[in-house]
Design brief:
globular, two-stranded antiparallel sheet, 63% helix, 265 residues
């Protein structure tokens, strides 16, 4: 008799769940229970701290760990130098931290941890807009603070491109201002959608694998299961690439926005 169809909910993997219950975890009417999302963000932060600490030995002949850390910092330094100029050097710690945190969070969410029996599953915190949105707002806040601190009210000239006809200035100003204010939303949305889409696709393919195995008696079931499994492996490899690309895109766009604040381009 054929087995039951796989009952796979692609969205269940994104559910935020408290790890220690919800009682007695309220502050000013808000529940502040420690969740699986907070756990994996903490793990990403600790992993980043260990990675950086292990590469700060400053040996004359650097080891592999130190070379890895220096390679990443050099990469970010070059990114800021190319997009911001000499003024970008002071932003290296922030851009490096946010790039590495996103990279670690993305990769940790792909780990096939066999810990379901104890209630621990790999969780991609960057698949939630609340997380990516906060990262985007932090970057946008730096742009606003630097822009107004350095240029005062002249910062508004960013919204009026050089050479704009006088009659067009009001309309162009509004369009540029709206485009500027949408930046944090688009910055956070891009990362959130990219990470969420890949995980949903993997979950859907896993249901095809299970259904195909359960329908082994039909003849075509095992073929569907095998093809789906091969596709899952390919998607997993692609997801590792996407994890790095999305971290890079976030750091790149943050650098470009900082350039606007520094140089009013």
């Amino acid at each position: 008799m054929a087995g039951e169809e796989a009952k796979v909910d692609p969205m269940h993997q994104f559910a935020i769940e408290p790890l220690f219950g919800t009682q007695n975890w309220e502050l000013a009417g808000y529940n502040i229970a420690f969740t699986n999302s907070a756990l994996w963000m903490a793990i990403a932060a600790v992993a980043l701290w260990v990675f950086v600490a292990g590469g700060m030995k400053r040996q004359l002949v650097p080891g592999r760990w130190q070379m890895a850390v220096e390679s990443f910092t050099g990469f970010i330094d070059g990114l800021l130098a190319a997009n911001v100029g000499p003024a970008g050097k002071k932003y290296v710690p922030y851009i490096f931290s946010i790039f590495m945190f996103i990279l670690f969070a993305n990769l940790l969410g792909l780990l096939p941890l066999p810990l379901g029996v104890v209630g621990i599953h790999a969780f991609t915190s960057t698949s939630h807009f609340t997380v990516t949105g906060v990262l985007a707002i932090m970057s946008f806040a730096i742009v606003l603070v630097v822009g107004f601190w350095k240029h005062k009210l002249h910062f508004f000239s960013l919204f009026v491109p050089h050479g704009t006809p006088l009659v067009m200035i009001p309309m162009i100003f509004v369009i540029e201002l709206v485009s500027f204010l949408v930046r944090p939303f688009s910055l956070g949305l891009r990362l959130f959608v990219a990470m969420m889409a890949g995980h949903v696709l993997l979950e859907v393919l896993s249901s095809f694998v299970i259904d195909g195995i359960n329908a082994a008696s039909s003849g075509i079931g095992p073929v569907v299961a095998l093809l789906s499994f091969i596709l899952m492996i390919a998607i997993c490899a692609l997801e590792i690439l996407v994890a790095g690309i999305q971290a890079y895109v976030f750091a790149l766009l943050a650098s470009l926005y900082i350039n606007d604040a520094e140089n009013l381009h």
